[in-house]
Specification:
The protein is an alpha/beta fold and 340 residues long. It is built from 10 helices and 11 strands. The longest helix has 20 residues.
């Protein structure tokens, strides 16, 4: 048995996890069909209405987040996790702007990717279409609820969201804003659904027992979550583990920018790249390499973690450790043409 939690924190009548998930799956499959017929204008109206709802309900969202923060603090979680979990006026506004930005993007559905004619005169097109129903499993960051729901809506995919236990009240409050946007645009509320239970069995059910309802699973979280998804899933998975982020510094030749200004800018890029949200999960927010011009390498400060600096066009790889460059044992990148 499980407990279903509303945005106000009340508990609904208990149901079995299987019953809840089956109902969600049926709703998502029906919504996917409706989204196939939805116009670009209708989807954009839903996104903009959801953005307006986030702004209008920001105080309720922050109040719900306070409940999550107090519960997490009582469990003595790490400061980094608390920061990922925290919502304030600035972060709620960033979520709202994100939805507005997604509404401004071109509609990917219906785009002709390739076209050719066979010798017999048959005309063939490769056209971008929705995947169908996407299941997204994520951890403590409640803003993922808005980001993932909006991206799936824009691409005409129904989505089933399963957020982390720590952010249940925050995610529920955010999801209610997305539902309001769908209602304003005349789209089914089941286009974006949030699993209403904190029972971990719901994750297992999504992975193994919703083969007919979910077309692909996208996990977003740490190694343990990714490992569980890869081990248990009977649904196709778009997974990741560790990325290979690269930052660029000082690529323009001396004739384009005055050398001192270029060095200052390169140092700033090196220190700040991928650090706008420094407490985001280390796997998804960690810079692995900095690509620097040959005249810029020696001006870069030593990083706090092991990283790689590659200097085009000769692709000479070094890493900085304790402020002193030395050859890097990793395979260097291929030569890169300087930007002009």
């Amino acid at each position: 048995m499980n407990q279903d939690i509303t945005a106000e924190g009340s508990v609904r009548t208990p149901q079995s996890v299987a019953d809840v998930m089956r109902a969600i799956g049926r709703g998502a499959r029906a919504a996917a069909l409706a989204l196939c017929l939805a116009s670009t204008d209708q989807k954009n109206r839903a996104l903009r209405a959801a953005s307006a709802s986030l702004r209008a309900r920001r105080h309720k969202i922050i109040a719900a987040n306070d409940r999550d923060m107090r519960a997490a603090a009582a469990k003595d979680v790490s400061p980094a996790l608390l920061d990922r979990l925290k919502l304030d006026e600035k972060r709620v506004e960033a979520m709202a702007r994100g939805l507005d930005d997604i509404a401004e993007l071109p509609d990917p559905i219906g785009t002709v990717l390739a076209e050719w004619t066979r010798p017999n005169g048959m005309r063939i097109q490769r056209v971008r279409v929705p995947l169908g129903v996407i299941g997204i499993i994520y951890e403590s960051r409640p803003n993922v609820t808005a980001d993932a729901g909006a991206l799936c809506l824009k691409s005409s995919n129904a989505v089933i969201l399963r957020g982390g236990t720590e952010s249940v009240h925050s995610s529920t409050a955010i999801h209610s804003c997305l539902e309001e946007g769908l209602t304003v645009a005349g789209l089914p509320g089941s286009c974006i659904q949030l699993v209403p239970t904190t029972d971990r069995a719901a994750v297992g059910y999504m992975l193994a027992d919703m083969v007919d309802d979910i077309d692909v699973i996208v996990p977003r979280g740490g190694k343990s979550l990714i490992a569980r998804v890869q081990q248990e899933a009977r649904v196709p998975v778009i997974g990741h583990l560790e990325g290979g982020w690269h930052g660029c510094a000082g690529w323009r030749p001396p004739s384009v920018l005055e050398r001192t200004r270029r060095q200052d800018r390169s140092q700033h890029c090196h220190c700040c790249y991928k650090s706008g949200y420094p407490t985001a999960h280390r796997v998804s927010n960690q810079r692995r390499h900095t690509i620097a011009g040959s005249r810029t390498v020696n001006t870069l400060p030593a990083p706090s973690r092991l990283s790689t600096v590659t200097s085009p066009p000769c692709a000479r790889a070094i890493h900085l450790q304790s402020g002193s460059p030395r050859p890097c044992p990793e395979r260097p990148l291929l030569p890169v043409r300087s930007a002009r």
